[in-house]
Design goal:
The protein has 182 residues and is an alpha+beta fold. It has one domain. Helices cover 13% and strands 31% of the residues. The protein is built from 3 helices and 11 strands; from the N terminus they run E-H-E-E-E-H-H-E-E-E-E-E-E-E. The chain has helices at 17-28, 80-83, 87-93, and strands at 8-11, 48-50, 66-73, 76-77, 98-107, 126-131, 138-141, 146-148, 154-158, 163-164, 173-181. Strands 1, 2, 3, 4, 5, 6, 9 and 11 form an 8-stranded antiparallel β-sheet that branches. A hairpin with a 4-residue loop joins strand 7 and strand 8 (146-148). The longest helix is centred in the first third of the chain and has 12 residues, at 17-28. The radius of gyration is 16 Å and the shape is globular.
């Protein structure tokens, strides 16, 4: 990984296709359905509604909410069945210590909406944004750099660097997983 607060790294085709598709289907598919033997075909992910993306002082605008599923918040594993699926990402990132892992679902909006700029945490650490689908949403940095959401792309940067997330206007939702770690 490149170092320094102003450096970002973009890696396309981050995981082998089979591993990527398993994570993608776990996060992006709806409620599990049962077959004739009452066996679920995928894990269920529960989404929590949030009225703000950047911080608690962001102006409330009901059009630009998002959904989140927190898998890990130091020191607690909150979603072990989903966590198991993302172990290949953690291994490839060479994570030494976790701070937080959360899946994000940014619903479609008529036009792309940029959320308020924010930092994930105020101290220097790694943030890895793992895109689960391709859409016209992006992550934007204070210098104007935009990194498009492309399925199986990971964006790595210092999480204390100011950045913005966006909605999408060309697909149902923008899905990604946010890893904060050392």
């Amino acid at each position: 990984m490149k170092t320094g607060k102003d450096k970002i790294q973009i890696i396309d085709d981050f995981l082998p296709q089979k591993e990527f598709q398993e994570i993608q289907s776990t996060i992006m598919e709806g409620w599990p359905f049962l077959d004739a033997q009452d066996t679920p075909h995928h894990e269920h992910i529960g989404w929590a509604y949030s009225t703000t993306v950047a911080d608690k002082d962001e102006p409330k605008n009901w059009k630009y909410f998002y959904l989140v599923h927190v898998m890990y918040m130091q020191p607690t594993l909150l979603s072990p069945h989903i966590f198991e699926k993302i172990i290949p990402v953690l291994k490839k990132l060479n994570v030494k210590a976790l701070i937080r892992i959360k899946a994000n679902l940014f619903p479609n909006s008529e036009k792309i909406h940029e959320h308020e700029a924010h930092t994930d945490f105020s101290y220097s650490h790694y943030t890895a944004l793992f895109s689960l689908n391709t859409c016209n949403g992006y992550t934007k940095f204070s210098d104007g750099t935009k990194v498009d959401s492309v399925a199986n792309r990971i964006l790595i940067f210092d999480g204390s660097l100011s950045h913005q997330s966006t909605t999408t206007s060309d697909t149902t939702a923008r899905f990604n997983i946010n890893f904060n770690y050392f």
